[in-house]
Model the fold of this input.
Amino acid sequence: MASPGSEPVHGSPRKQSRVVIRFAGDSGDGMQLTGDRFTAEAAAFGNDLSTLPNFPAEIRAPHGTLAGVSSFQLHFADYDILTPGDRPDVLVTMNPAALKANLTDLSPGGVLIVDTDEFTKRNLTKVGFESDPLEDGSLASYTVHRVAMTSLTTAALAPLGIGKKEAERSKNMFALGLLSWMYSRPTEGTERWLRDKFAKRPEIAEANIVAFRTGHAYGETTESFAVTYEVSPAALPDGTYRQITGNTALAYGIVASGLRFGLPVFLGSYPITPASDILHELSKLKRFGVTTFQAEDEIAGVSAAIGAAFGGSLGVTTTSGPGISLKSEAIGLAVMTELPLLVVDVQRGGPSTGLPTKTEQSDLLQAMFGRNGEAPLPIVAPRSPSDAFDATLDAVRIAVTYQTPVLLLSDGAIANGSEPWRLPEDGDLPETPVRFATEPNGPDGSFLPYLRDPDTLAVPWAVPGTPGLAHRIGGLEKADGTGNISYDPANHEFMVRVRQAKIDGVTVPDLDVEDPDGDADVLVVGWGSTYGPIGAAVRRLRALGHPVAQAHFRYLNPFPANTADVLRRYRKVVVPEMNLGQLAFLLQGRFCIPVESITKVAGMPFGAAELAERLTPLMMKEEVSA
Amino acid sequence: MTAIDLGLPVLGGLDRVPTEDEVQRAKDFTSDQEVRWCPGCGDYAVLAAVRSFLPTLHIKRENTVFVSGIGCSSRFPYYLDTYGMHSIHGRAPAIATGLAVTRPDLSVFVVTGDGDALSIGGNHLIHALRRNVNLTILLFNNRIYGLTKGQYSPTSEVGKVTKSTPMGSLDHPFNPVSLALGAEATFVGRAMDSDRAGLTEVLDAATRHRGASLVEIYQDCPIFNDGSFDVLRKPDQSESRVITVRHGEPIVFGNEGRYAVVRKGFGLAVAPTAEVAPEDVVVHDATDTELAFALSRLSDQDLQHAVFGVLRRVDRPTYDDLARAQVQHAVQDGTADLHSLLHGTDTWAVQSGNVQIPHD
Done:
């Protein structure tokens, strides 16, 4: 593991394999932007990377308070990494609050860069520092760089004649410039990006570029930073890459699905953290025939999507857990009417309003069972930001093949986190247009809207406007075949079971097990965004000589056909999840196999070291019961 | 920020719907399902009126869709041989919005009741109206919950004794027409279930109006609120109560026009026609927002007066036309290319483990 900041090397930059950097400041300090930009530089350089934005739900909490601290962590490396990193090696703090909130996470001996201008008595008192940590020796175990970022920035911008407040706001670009110098990052991209972003206000673009260059030059010319570092590009599988967040990948997956299945996309959505960016992204993509509808509420969002699906569009609704609660009845209507629908739940901390900006995986059982009656639907979960693209395509495939709503379970870490994405080749997305019903399918030219495909048990998709197929659908139980209202006991029994059988019969790929040495007797299984931390933890355990296998569920309903076989092969099955054991509950209930649950509900992903530590006791053989 | 002016022409409500040349009859619109409302229910009269009215639109039957919520009236779609969806409580306007936005070739009707539209679905109703989605909304108002067997509704008069209010209901009722006008509806009308001609006239205007049309239909529930509109039906009582308005005509009513509507302060009042100067009789102007609202206030919960006909009808771009125009505008731009979308502006290539630094 890299640990910057020991011996200076003159001339060429010091090589590092991987680095974790965290930018922390006030909500208004532009830390997310700074982190995003540094990420883009790392991506452009060819590093593998993974990010973890962490910000409060309040837009602007009181200035300089702990509640208002916003941070962005970036892990970049010259090999394939799986998580945003446990602890930062480098912590950039723009004020005392950011220092207080983040210092305990900094790796021992790590580098701390501080904006000294903000370390005033008043700011220190505000967060409960009795003495100035920059002076009282409490930071002795770190390599501390004291930089007057605010005043250096305002001094550099003085000739531009812009206001002091505006000038101060550019200090985040000073920090970015400094870090870009330290890590030998390319700078042209950022300058170009600033010019684009502030195209309408060239004076602001100029100020930010000057601040950025000033930070860069500060590193180059002052002696306090004797060392620069280099993290070489990562040797990833061949292909063309870009950096992408989970929400963007998911939005692109929706667009690609529309093109692939030949359906116009209709999104009905109500703004909610952390899903709103999907609505924002799709609303910019109308050129792909995408209609976005910002509804009056969550229920209207899904209802409009159901209406659009009835009319032959790809109906989509996007939300987070509280929105799923509100949409439940309507999702049940889509189950009952058997219309294709994509329901996206970007999970956040719950219950109720919970932790809007933090991640959790606690909606699995809601997705599975959160509707009245027997209302099964397929559940698909992406494992990482870039995987959200493929998972979306697959969720839509299931929806239109089986005429069913599908729940796509993303989460806050996937949504806002980013990583390199190996782009699909042009031929990877073959167009397979959906076929609507056009002809009567019953005796004497009649149309039976609930006559099923013998293989998939799907009902026909017969859209209004098709002559001869006029029919009525609804939430009341319907007679097999005709779809007429039916209260017949035997019919209801049959229909409940056939709807269940349809979902049970959804074809999903087998569960893959990663067991490099083939001798593992412990299997760690996860779903969703725990993929990265589990993978990283398992690597650590293997490095310590523990034989351990990993498997990951993309399909939570139905489970892959080989699930029971896989689980039974291992002495112990361990399920780490960011909830109180929901997948563990499902696996035990479904397969009667005991599993060990490792759970965390802190609003933050598992750290690799943390998870490895919690897994270690489970590696011991003597635990085997007779 | 300013919106792009999409320069839309003024259209009629059915202008994008394919027409039918063959002669259609009421029975063509009648499904094979047995109608299961209580004997004497006002819904029968409305169903009969709609079945005979639909053929007069000369549109393709398969391009006609009825979407309903939950309640007695929401069974309506099952009895028509068109496309239909009997959905969930209160959500029909939202479902119909998704359908209407994506399918300009359909004539979309919403069938709802006072509980469905004004209680559980109140939010969807007002937003469909303000957006002006091209829908025709039939609001069956029987001032009671029928399907749940007789609880008071948001249009029940204060003091209503029902199963859930044995000591009388406390809440002040909605006036659906005032509500719709307050929600910026571009078309608001009212009709009586038993008045086939009046109902058909308002329905026809509503359907041909491009935008959200709300038609409140007073409808009798013989089981739980029997005779609730009798004062408007019995000739001896209705004469001084029923006010029928037509655009451009002076508002007089009663035998031989005995009564007239006149201005009073910021509102309206009823006076004996003989006692007012002819020029003081209000002439109905369906494009006058204030007049429509004042007319709606003439109808109170005690049914002292009730105004029927088209109270308001104005043209305003519809949400669905605008939404489609935005998409079309963007599509015509011709820059939709999935490859470039996915690639974005910053990509890098990796070949055989060697990274190539990008040069874009």
